Amino acid sequence: MPEVSERLLRRAVKCVVAGAAVVLVAACGSQEEARRAAPAPARPIQEIGGVYDASPTPAPFPNPTLPQVQVGETGRAGDLELSVEEAKAATTARKLFSGVHRAQGRFVIVPVTMKNLGKEPFSMLEFMEATLTDVSGATYNQAREVASDQSIRGTSNFNWEINPSSKGKVVLVFDLPKEVQPSFITVEGIATIRF
Q: From CA 20, how far away is CA 62, in angstroms rounded?
């Protein structure tokens, strides 16, 4: 019997679990729960000089237990109201004070506006740990320095903490090879943002 790599085995288990969760939600849950758990149709990423189709092929399933917000929509994730207006692609991004960051491939830039509906302050630093999964299932970490610069730029009183009933904005930035097709972003324990 051929030996199966541990990574391939973990990936197969994740696919089976995610598929079972979608079937269970669809069979037992409401139509709204089934819609959130099912993969969304592709949303284009605005490319400077054109439109980049984010996911023309079937994508891996995001974690069905996390609230999901589609790019272009507003949704609720626990005590947060998240608004994800767009996803843009660019080859450069301005630094905080002067100069530019240059992408190794291209930056995928996703601004997220949030309102804290809870009773305790919320730290937006949790969004700096976000990961992006492409249509093949590969995972990418954020370009944190670029994301931090983009989040702080243009504000006179930026604060990583959002007090109750207050709003804040964070910009997620991923430096991806040009051929990579994004599927979704996971902010572990908070939400999934689908393209």
A: 13
What's the one-letter identity of residue 129?
Answer: E
For the four alpha carbons of 152, 125, 114 and 71, in that order, the dihedral sign comes to positive
* Under 8 Å between Cβ of 93 and 173: yes
What's the topology of domain 40-194? Answer: Immunoglobulin-like (2.60.40)
Report domain extents, the chain: 1-38, 40-194
pLDDT tens-digit profile of 72-125?
A: 999 999 999 999 989 999 999 999 888 899 999 999 999 999 999 999 999 998
Percent of the chain exceeding pLDDT 90 equals 52
Q: Copy the structure tokens of residue 180.
A: 């990579």
